[in-house]
Specification:
Layout lengths: L1 H32 L1 H7 L17 E4 L5 E15 L7 H11 L4 H8 L7 E7 L1 H10 L4 E10 L7 H4 L2 E4 L2 E4 L2 H5 L1 H4 L10 H13 L9 E4 L3 H18 L3 E7 L6 E7 L19 H4 L9 H10 L8 E4 L2 E4 L2 E4 L7 E4 H6 L3 H11 L1 H10 L28 H8 L8 H8 L7 E2 L5 E5 L5 E3 L6 E2 L3 H18 L13 E10 L5 E14 L6 E8 L7 H4 L1 H14 L7
Parallel strand pairs: 1-7
Antiparallel strand pairs: 1-2, 2-3, 2-4, 5-6, 7-15, 8-9, 8-20, 10-13, 11-12, 14-17, 15-16, 18-19, 19-20
């Protein structure tokens, strides 16, 4: 009898504990999570939202101290609607409204004339405070309709990375950038704040234990650092102003983790005003959607392949004749001049095409091709932004193609890769020979306030650690002594870097004689790198080589990174 009583007491206690938990959960969501929505509902003159005002998760940048900075948010406010038949004095009503918030006169007059229409919208994106004033004015025939819209507080900052929300048919959805790639996570398809408390609990538990954090609705947290992004874009603007290229772009990335702290291109756009853009090409991200022949920034990788395969050392020499013939076609140094007997260090210092042709011949075409595939130039990086394209190294085949193909590939011509694939491959030199996985999104923040991290996949070892140490030392000498005569050398910081100037292919066959793609990469400090930087410019004007257009912009970015992150000196 006593045990039965104890059991009933326990059941009753369990019931009250569960009820208390449900009540606490409900209060948390009513007061903390959905408090702002309930407050808006209390304004009074309210009509159900239109279907295109769905809620949506935010996109956050991450400042260096871990603070989240809004990159894309839902802005809330009101639309103004009228019932024309209920408005007795249209002029008086118009003046009263227009004092509070701008109302288009022509639209108002056209709407007021539709006396048989019970509902006409006359103003949109009306701020919260204006909505309160309109309610207090108690204007007959005037309604407030809850409104939501996507806003990008930083304007053009990281525009191609963020993308924007627009219409696809009659449906509002993410159509570019992260907004598109993470549509399933960002779009809130649930019924809003009127949720069964049991469902609320299990939904949040499910999000916490799910093997795929992105499978549940929430906001996304990115590795984009807003101050670094701003500095990168200022640098791109400067290059654009000085050299007027068709396109200029850049990436700043942690070469170990693959986290992208800045990625941008010019020309750009303001996602708040995307509907005013006349050239839709600016919406695309050329850093993942463009494929280019990159030129001489490929040479450090060719040198690394030769070193790793045991074909050369930095002291290996060859006889440079200025030009040579491969498969019946002439291969020449950029200035057509011979250097006679030179070392591999001079191949990088003077960016000698014949030098890397010598390396690829000595290494063997099949081995060279195998390394190029291990560097994943013909694979997507699987970066978490949309529309990534594949690189094209098909001219290499499996090592059986004409000799000229390998000669051209050794200095970055004849094969084409995306900038994101290029910086990934170059990162092996800064990451102990491992190929990192570039990514932008680092976590999902759920409506409950809980955040789950998203981890990158493990890196793949491509080169021996001792190989990249050797090549990094060679690239430091390039930056300290050869690049612009050594004027950019930093007394207390070692920087490994290389320029690239590639001819642009002419449709059909051959190359333009007066059109070039300039590229530049560098990482710092050279032997324990914190960041790798990639810059490129398509068809810049007023300078022939990338050393003129991109070396100083890179140096400025490097100095900013050192100061902003307080990177300790390494020499």
């Amino acid at each position: 009898m006593r045990s039965s009583l104890v059991l009933r007491v326990r059941i009753i206690c369990a019931f009250f504990i569960l009820a208390t938990i449900l009540l606490v959960v409900r209060l948390y969501f009513v007061q903390i999570i959905h408090g702002a929505e309930y407050k808006k509902d209390a304004i009074g003159q309210y009509v159900e939202s239109s279907p295109d005002t769905e809620a949506r998760g935010n996109i956050y940048f991450t400042a260096k101290d871990g603070t989240l900075v809004a990159g894309a948010v839902m802005q809330t406010g009101w639309r103004i609607a009228i019932r024309p038949a209920d408005i007795l004095d249209s002029e008086k009503t118009y003046r009263a409204l227009n004092v509070i918030t701008p109302v288009d006169r022509e639209r108002y007059d056209q709407s007021i004339a539709k006396k048989d229409d019970p509902y006409e919208e006359i103003a949109f994106r009306v701020p919260e405070d204006a909505g309160v004033k309109i309610r207090d004015a108690k204007l007959g025939g005037v309604l407030l309709v809850q409104d939501q819209w996507r806003a990008y507080p930083a304007g053009t900052l990281a525009a191609q990375t963020l993308g924007f929300v627009g219409f696809k048919g009659n449906t509002k959805t993410g159509v570019y950038g992260l907004e598109r790639e993470w549509q399933a996570t960002l779009a809130k398809l649930s019924a809003g704040h009127y949720v069964n408390p049991f469902a609320e609990i299990f939904t949040n538990v499910g999000a916490l234990i799910s093997s795929d954090p992105a499978a549940h609705e929430g906001s996304i947290i990115t590795s984009i650092e807003p101050s670094v992004q701003l500095e990168l874009e200022k640098t791109l603007d400067s290059v654009m102003k000085t050299y007027s290229p068709n396109t200029v772009g850049g990436i700043v990335m942690d070469p170990v983790t693959g986290e992208i702290v800045a990625m941008g291109a010019r020309p750009a756009f303001d996602p708040n005003l995307y509907n005013t853009v006349t050239n839709a090409a600016v919406f695309s991200n050329p850093l993942v959607e463009g494929r280019y022949e990159m030129g001489s920034i490929m040479k450090p990788l060719t040198v690394a392949i030769g070193v790793d395969a045991g074909a050369i050392t930095p002291e290996t020499t060859y006889n440079d004749t200025g030009c040579a013939t491969r498969s019946g076609k002439k291969i020449c140094n950029y200035d057509l001049k011979a250097r006679n007997v030179v070392s591999m260090q001079e191949v990088l210092n003077q960016s000698l095409n014949l030098g890397v042709t010598f390396i690829v011949d000595r290494t063997g075409h099949e081995i060279f091709t195998r390394y190029m595939r291990q560097l994943a130039f013909d694979q997507k990086t699987e970066i978490d932004v949309p529309n990534e394209v594949l690189g094209d190294i098909s001219p290499l085949g499996n090592g059986e193609k004409p000799e000229v193909n390998y000669a051209a590939a050794s200095f970055g011509q004849g094969i084409s890769v995306t900038p994101i694939a290029m910086i990934r491959a170059l990162s092996v030199l800064a990451n102990g020979g491992k190929l990192p996985n570039p990514h932008v999104v680092t976590g999902i923040r759920y409506e409950s306030g809980i955040t789950r991290s998203i981890s990158a996949t493990s890196s793949v070892q491509v080169l021996k650690p001792e190989t990249v140490t050797i090549v990094s030392n060679m690239l430091v000498k390039v930056y300290d002594k050869a690049l612009l005569g050594g004027v950019l050398k930093q007394e207390h910081y070692s920087i490994a870097a290389k320029t690239g100037t590639a001819q642009i292919a002419e449709p059909g066959s051959g190359y333009y004689s007066d059109r070039f793609l300039h590229s530049f990469f560098g990482y710092l400090p050279a032997h324990e790198p914190k960041y790798i930087v990639f810059l490129f410019a398509i068809e810049p004007h007023g300078a022939e080589f990338a050393s003129a257009t991109l070396a100083r912009p890179f140096a400025g970015l490097a100095e900013f990174l050192v100061n902003y992150y307080d990177i300790p000196p390494d020499r």
